[in-house]
Structure formats: structure tokens, C-alpha cells
Fold:
Amino acid sequence: MALVLFITGIAAALFTLLGISSPRRPYFLVPLTFFIAWLAGDLAMFHLVAQIIFTTVLVAQGAAAYTTGKVGLACMVASWVGLVLLLRRHRLAAAPLDAALATVLGPHEPSVAAEPVSLGTLLRPFVPSAKGVRIARDIVYGPHRRNRLDVFTPADGRTGCPVLLQIHGGAWIIGNKKQQAQPLMRHLARRGWVCVAINYRLSPRATFPEHLIDAKLALAWIREHIGEYGGDPSFLAVTGGSAGGHLSALVGLTANDPRFQPGFEHADTSVNACVPIYGVFDFLDRDGLHKGLMEPMLAKLVMKSRPGEATDAWHAASPLSQVRIDAPPFFIIQGGQDTLVWSEEARSFAEALGKVSTNAVAYAEIPFAQHAFDIMTTRRSVYAVRAITRFLDHARTGN
Structure:
């Protein structure tokens, strides 16, 4: 038992340390270290309880009577301290979200942390409540196998609802509409929104801009059909995380661009607000952030070319190259400790867009938040959902 405590104690301490530090290098290990850090940070409460129970059982069986057991116990205690720190970090999300909203709504709004987050909510990280929500699944919006969408509507059947399009992430090569933004869409549906989550064609079979074309095809479908589900497309917003953040930003910046609407050039693909979350904004990597991790993947799987060979295509794929004076209101949200998409890129994009757009550009960088911080229900993600809701309500009503 002492050896078991020794091994698990060291493993627990290393696990928690990765959650605290979230190292950016070496590049080849980042996908693995990201995943560990994400699980450690966003599920810290559950890891803490499990480790305490496990350690208590081992100590009760005499595991701490030996030197190896004592070392393991010390490592476990260190892990617990680190997990408490990770939990405390969740509360830090409120300040930057409040500050970002203040630039748009003014300084007198209540904090996103003003309303307590219930323990019952936090105990369901993977399955947000569906109370008050109806979901219509796998509706066809286009000719391709992955052109399917889900529609989240208020359970009371109300009509005339504003509409949100959600585009999932997954590095343009994986992902599914059922996996992401579930807390946000269910929250909005309960508040009288209609939310549409789409699948789209994925690489390596798909080559950019086919991913974006599918997102715009979904917009065209929404314009034509969302009234059947109680939605009113006169207010239509778009959001997404990671690759979905990239695509949602492009949707917001390339309204009605015929290059990305083959066969439906006359469809209205404009949106009234855009909320990209930890998105990729510069395929050309002008700040030198991607070379070790992302650029080879983009060139081989997504773009099927190198930047020097097809510069126009890489510019077209970069939201940073598409900033425009008439961009819709943007709320850009980024994790400060994101090891897959670095915060420097989001800052550069927010600054560039803010210099030219006549509409609001709000930017919130969440301290210590890792990539995908909004997928599970945590205190941090609840605060983000509240902030996004306020931003969208303001974009819709002006209040």
C-alpha cells in the first residue's frame, strides 16, 4: 500500500502541476499537456474529492507508516493545495468579463459574479440541464453528409426569438455539434433564444473554404426556415470556439462574399453580432506563434498548400486579413493560459479590429483559463455564459 500511495501521490502532484503551469513547450507535447491541464483545471473539484477519499483509504490501511508512503502522502497534500488554487482561479474570470462588458454597456452593470453559482450546477459538468429547452436533432441544411444541425428552442413554444448560430471546434478535422457550447445554448434557449448548432465538412477530406461555405449555407437555411422553430432571423448572431471561433469570425467579417457562397450567392449571410472564443485569427502567423505546432497541420490537412504558394487563399482564411469598418459587434473571449491558441493572437486581432470597426469590439482574456474552458460547466464557464448573454442582449436591444 505504501508503494501505491507513493506512485499515485507523485502522479497526482504532476497532474496538478500541469494544470497550474500549462506549459507551451515543447511543441510536440502540447496536445498531451493541454489535455491533462484542461482536465486538471476544469475538474479540480472532482479530482480533489477523489484524491482525498483515495488517500484516506490508503492511510487507514497503513500506507503512511513507511517512508515511501510518507513521500506519497506529502505529494498528495501538495496536489490538494494546487487543486484548491485551481478552483480559486475560476473566480478570477469575473473581472475581465465585467471589464469587457463595461466597454460596451457602460460601467454600472452588476458583475457576472453577482448571482451565486449553485452547487447543483457545478456538480453536473458534462450534462447541463435541459429543463425548459426543446431540441430538434439532425435537421438537413445542405447536400453533404455532415450538413446537419440541431435546433434548441424554448420549451414554451414562444415565437419571434433571436437566433444564435454555434460552430463547433476541433482543429477543422474533428468535432461534433453535440460536444460544445451546450451550457450557452441551453441557457439562451431558456431565456427566449433559438440556438442552432451545426456540423460541417471536416479536413482532410474538406479543404478551406469548404468549412466556411457550410457555415454560410447554414445561415442561408436559418434565414429561410428558422421561423418554423420560433426564430426571427432579423437578429442573428454567431459564435464558436477554437476552429469554430475562427469560422465564426470569418462569418462575421465576410458577409455576402460570393467567394464563399457558391450556388447561393444571393443569400443574406450577414450577422448582427459575433462572439469568437479562443479562435485562430491569423493563418499567416504574422506574430510567429504557430510554426512549431499549427502551421504544418494547416498546410497539410486544411489548406493543402503553403503560405508562400497560395498567399491569397491564406489571407482569405485569416480573420486578421478581413477586418473591416462595417464589422458587426464583436465580443472576443480568450483563455489567458491557452496552450493551443495563444492569447497574443487574440489580442492582436482585437486590437486590429478595434482600430477599424465602427461597432463595438470587446475583448476579455480570462486569467489562467486553458483552451476549451467553456465546454464543461464550471464557475468560470457560467460567468462566461452570463457575459455572452448580456453582450448579445445589448447588441439586440441596445440596452
User: Anything to note?
Assistant: The CA atoms of residues 278 and 334 lie 5 Å apart. The first strand starts at residue 133 and ends at 140.
